[in-house]
Design brief:
The structure is a single chain. This protein is an alpha+beta fold. It has a single domain, classed as Roll (Ubiquitin-like (UB roll)). The chain is 21% helix and 39% strand. Strands 1, 2, 3 and 4 form a 4-stranded mixed sheet that branches. The two termini are 18 Å apart. 14% of the residues are buried. The structure holds zinc ion. Zinc ion binds next to loops.
């Protein structure tokens, strides 16, 4: 697959950091499995990974957390 952003790089398996905001809650996930474009740095997340981080961000927002930084290890790469 060719990167849809720069149209020249080929995304490769790696790890990235995902930041999500829910109201006043900021959740940062580190070491999230993704395909990363070596040319422009765009990251492509698997649908199940996206579901996982969105769900966790919603949970943090419900719990009233303001800033949460966590390692991602619900879904194996
Ligand atoms: Zn790219």
């Amino acid at each position: 697959m060719t990167c849809v952003i720069c149209k020249s790089g080929t995304p490769e398996a790696g790890k990235t950091t995902v930041t999500l905001e829910r109201g006043k809650t900021l959740v940062v996930f580190r070491r999230v499995p993704a395909k990363i474009c070596p040319n422009c740095g765009e990251s492509y997340l698997d649908d199940r990974v996206v579901d996982e981080v969105y769900h966790a961000a919603d949970e943090a927002a419900k719990a009233g957390v303001e800033v949460d930084v966590r390692e991602f290890h619900h879904v194996s790469a």
